[in-house]
Predict the 3D structure of the following.
Amino acid sequence: MKKLILFAIVAIIFAACGRSISSDGGELTGVSAPSWSEPNPHGMVLIKRGAYRMGPAEKDSLWGIFQNSKGVSIESFWMDETEITNAEYRQFVYWVRDSIIRERLYDPAFGGNELYKITEDKEGNPIEPILDWKRPIPTERRADENELAALRSVYETNPITGETRLDPKQMIYRYSVFDATGYAMRRNRLNPEERNRNTDIKIDPNEVVMISKDTAYITEEGKIISETITRPLSSIWDFLNTYIINIYPDETVWVNDFENAYNEPYIRLYFNHPGYNDYPVVGVSWEQANAFCNWRTQYLKKSLDANFKNTIEPYRLPTEAEFEYAARAGKSENKYPWGGDEATSEKGCFLGNFKPGDGDYVKDGHLIPAKVGSYSPNEFGLYDMAGNVAEWTSTSFIESGPEKMSDMNPEYRYNAAKEDPYDMKKKVVRGGSWKDVAHNIRSDVRTYEYQNEQRSYIGFRCVRTQVGFAKGKGKK
């Protein structure tokens, strides 16, 4: 009788457990992934997914443009409302400056203060030392002799004029990027048996796959060495690319872009004077713009919960297709962001900052770049998508353009090695600038610049792929 009762109890327990486990009634209901709310990026507009015809829709014999539009579709993404400003880029420069100062305050050769680095986690376990950003940098008034040397070490003084300024040569940013696309390619699988699914082909287990990766380091003499190395694929680490970039804008572009012109005041003032805080940053190369995107991503991640920071999509440069889609407000018929075929309104008002006439830069009210947002936004809520400054995209330039790309999220990338011919280092630039005529600021016009070049008329803005779903087009 006792055995029977015990069996009944066990049966009830198993039945109860079965009911709790099979609360779905044995049906396929799915298991939800952990959810969280993606924060809306500050100063960005949500561009919802859509389709349009990319490229010029009609021939223009005067400018040598041929009809070669192509229907494409774009996923939803966030985009900066305006170009990155001097003030915003200066935040990046000052972050690099302050990281150098903190390193030197920790360095025994300067401050020698061990408190400027964190060497233990919350449980007291030793970790690789990291800078303590919560510890403030002392002011010059309160700094001792060694600390003062550290503070002043990032500045230089002109021996002739006596002017003291931040030393551009020291503004170095080091970062690494995992090439997820290269790692995902079937031909790059670490297991040779996974590289080809055709079972008629005999797999060579000793097949060697050569992989190229970018690497960079600083010599004992302080020289930056950047190179592309090719070696046999051995591990996931072969897809980690490392870059060391001098991120300070080239202020001399105002002289080098214009021969026989008196533009010296812009060298001293445009990036550093508070009167230009809200003007688009210029003199920044494609390589520097990518470094900014990486820093902005890492800066955001440090403010997020550890459980979610790795789910954030990175800030990046827009693809050529994304920029054109956003500039045209998703409408294939829009030659300009504001619609229509002219760069002025019916009342003769200028709709963007460009060069209206022969030698006449000021007819639209501006001589050089205008303060961002000086003109009305397009239907997506984006400012200065035509004129003001031209903008870098992530896309590598080839003459065939969209014809070479997929019709879904089109993009063409070529990661040029240092030893590659210079012609292979062209990147697509879009939007036209303050020094271009009306035709060249059209949304369907593409041009290029070399990835290491810096110009007084090229800036950039960031995008970030939206996490989740979005329906329709336009601003959220």
Summary: The radius of gyration is 28 Å. Residues 86-106 form the longest helix (21 residues). The first strand starts at residue 44 and ends at 47.
